[in-house]
Amino acid sequence: MSTVSEVNAESSLEPLKERASARFSEMLISPYIKERLAASKFTTPTPVQAATIPQALEGKDVLATAQTGTGKTLAFLIPVIEKLLKDKTPGIAALVLVPTRELAMQVVEQFNALRGKQLLPAALVVGGLSEGAQLQAIRKGARLVVATPGRLEDYLDRRLFHFNALRILILDEADRMLDMGFLPAIRRIVSILPKERQTMCFSATMEGDMVRIVKDYLRNAVRLSFGSTSKPSENVRVQAFEVAMDRKQEMLQRLLTKETGKCLVFARTKRGTERIAESLNRKGFSAAMIHGDRSFAGSGGKLHPSRRAHRPQRRPWCGFDPLCKGAAIGTLPTRAFVGHQDRAVASGRDRFPSRSTGAQASPSATHGFRATNREIRASRRSLSISDGELSSA
User: Fold this and answer.
1) 168 contacts 200 by C-beta, under 8 angstroms
2) Which residue in 225, 260, 242 sits closest to 6, CA to CA?
3) What total number of domains does the chain contain?
4) Which of 128, 205, 257, 334 is in the most buried spot, having the most CB atoms within 10 Å?
């Protein structure tokens, strides 16, 4: 049975503030990684990074709970890179399990940006992309594999490679993987991994099956807790407008008209995504869409708005929300819109930290307000929109 020593950000604010104010250049990491971080314009660690990196470098198991958008990816990639640089043993040394292909692609991209010339590229193991290219990266000697549980289990069942040399396991967005039904796959994967390893688990919440994961897979883990794990990130401001069903599209268009730059629109179904995108394009907006029936491979996982529209300054992306979690977008949207319970349009303006903080400034941060319906209800301005109010919205 595992034991967990807890370090809670809310109960030890002063030490964490001091750590968060430090710079990467002052941390006990190699000069090589400091140079790579500086080249990527990462200068100041977030509290999650400042607390996690020293513990991970000591080889301790880590359980970190923090809201999305707080820089968890860099918190585990820096210790992984450090250990890969020190231990040159051939074989896959580190495995990162994530819930979605898009998030896996982001982790690989971040690792490859930081690794420099001393490490080989990470291997991506996900569905929907070329199997040959993924296996070739492993056969060329990739020592870090970033995978979704379903595709990785498929490869392991076919005995395409092994994890005999594995030393580090990372479960990123573990609660999300459990929500998506990956617990059986995770158990089967972990059962074949070496018992002597370091395990790090990152999650936004600590509920239900997460307790079992901690009990079964973490040993004497250090618990790092940052803020509330049941409410949206403070980087998101939530507003809600109660609108009649037949007025939602008109309300969305009026809200989008006020915006400049890129926006992200979530819909409940694939067909709803298509209807919204088609309607916006007819109205002169430049709208692109993504859902499960549209291939991501052609654009390398990035969304590109259509170039046919007459108003390129307003570029909404319409997405089926489970797929948009972790989608990679070159420039952050200024606003995200969510069709909430078929009754309302909720919007949240982002206030993401600058890249110099080392946070993963990603649209995945919108998951913080998308996933918590009660928090939207608690923090929203409830408005019954009349025809007059709609025209002035």
Assistant:
1) yes
2) 225
3) 2
4) 205
| In-domain check, residue 323 | yes
Instruction: Please name the residues in contact with 159: beta carbons below 8 A apart, sequence gap of 6 or more.
Output: none
pLDDT in tens, 243-255: 888 888 888 888 8
Buried b (16+ CB within 10 A) or exposed e, 305-318: beeebeeeebbbbb
Tokens representing 388? Answer: 């007059």
Is residue 231 a part of any domain in this protein? no
Amino acid in the structure at residue 216: D
- Of 225, 249, 281, the one marking the end of a domain is 225
Return the exposure string of 43-80: e unless at least 16 CB atoms fall within 10 Å of the residue's CB, then b. ebbbbbbbbbbbbbeeebbbbbbbbbbbbbbbbbbbbb
Residue-wise pLDDT tens digits, 208-225: 788 888 889 999 899 998
Do both 240 and 131 map to the same domain? Answer: no
Is the pTM for the entire model greater than 0.90? no
* Residues spanned by the domain of 153: 4-225
Q: Who wins on pLDDT, 378 or 198?
A: 198
CATH at 353: 3.40.50
